[in-house]
Amino acid sequence: MNKTVFITGATSGFGKAAAEIFAENKHNLILTGRRQERLEALSNELQLKHKVEVTTLCFDVRDNDAVVSAIDSLPKIKIDVLVNNAGLASGLNKIQDGLLSDWEKMIDTNVKGLLYVSKAIIPLMLEQQSGHIINIGSTAGKEAYEKGNVYCATKHAVDALSKSMRIDLLGTGIKVSQICPGAAETEFSEVRLHGDKEKAKSVYNGYEPMSAQDIASIIYYVTTLPDNLCINDLVVTSVSQANSFYINRT
Ligand code: NDP
Ligand code: 8X3
Predict the structure, then answer these.
(1) Of the candidates 110, 82, 117, which has an alpha carbon nearest to the alpha carbon of residue 188?
(2) Is the pTM of this model over 0.85?
(3) What is the pLDDT of residue 130?
(4) Going by C-beta distance under 8 Å and a sequence separation of 6 or more, which residues neighbour residue 211?
(5) Ligand 2: which atom is nearest the Cα of residue 192?
(6) Which atom of ligand 2 is nearest to the CA of 151?
(7) Proximal ligand: closest to the CA of 134
């Protein structure tokens, strides 16, 4: 059955790769992000290649008015899957050296943005009496590490919200899954390191990190289970990584 899959942060990394795998499997898409040109290019490519319907919504998840008006602008359709993926780390400093602007960006995007989008879509899923919310957490939401402070706090919040959503939505027909990846090579490190490409590349020196496609295949997989099954929480790393602290670098 064709589903409609709403993905935040579809202009890059996990979100873009997830859009590709859902389209390959003939699901229709609602793709969101702040970079309009990237949304348009991806939408054109997927419609042409896979003959699926793609709607793009360009908004910043930190702006609740923009979130609400973008979602209100959709025609009355069923949203089967929401992938709450938009997020970022900004800065890598000890707590005593952190920048307020970085902290606000991470809290506003990773926590408040996820809540704004969820608040706009949950009523539609409640009306349908079905749906699947997939929150992208992180190993940073399972353990705190040096210089991770506020990013780790936001992903711990995603962990708590995923558990809370599952409890509160029990009996409504809405599934809630959290996927917690370890290190994967996307634009993530470049964004975290404020655009320093060389330093970002060096994060992955000496081991093979996961790819965006690896995580996309897992996002897709959790949506393929029978109606009575829900993967609640899934932690995934490359074989070179045991947790936030141990990476086998050669
Ligand atoms: P990328 O930087 O490649 O992609 C991030 C996506 O989020 C982009 O599409 C970006 O779109 C979107 N985004 C960021 N801020 C906003 C905003 N304010 N409003 C709307 N969209 C926004 O990183 P990843 O694909 O790696 O990251 C995706 C998620 O996975 C994040 O939540 C991240 O924390 C998490 N994660 C990443 C890991 C990694 O190692 N890569 C590991 C574990 C979790 P645009 O800029 O166009 O708005
Ligand atoms: C991203 C993975 O290890 O940088 O969430 O925290 S890590």
Answers:
(1) 110
(2) yes
(3) 98
(4) 17, 184, 185
(5) 4
(6) 6
(7) 1
Q: Which residues of the chain have pLDDT under 70?
A: none
> Residue 42 burial by CB count (10 A; 0-12/13-18/19+): exposed, middle or buried?
buried
Cβ density class 115-144: b for 16+ within 10 Å, e for less: bbbbebbbebbeeeeebbbbbbbbbbbbee
For the question of residue 151 being annotated catalytic, the response is yes
pLDDT tens readout for residues 212-223: 999 999 999 999
CA distances from 30 to 18, 47, 59, 63, 76 (A): 12, 12, 12, 18, 13
Which residues form ligand 1's pocket by a CB distance below 6 Å?
8-15, 33-35, 60-62, 85-88, 109, 113, 136, 138, 181, 183-184, 186-188, 191, 212
Distance 144 CA to ligand 2 centre (A): 10
Query: Is the CB–ligand 2 distance for residue 70 below 6 Å?
Result: no
Q: Which domains does the chain have, with CATH numbers?
A: 4-236 (3.40.50.720)
Rounded to whole angstroms, the Cα distance separating 82 from 8 reads 8
Tell me the three state secondary structure of residue 138. Answer: coil
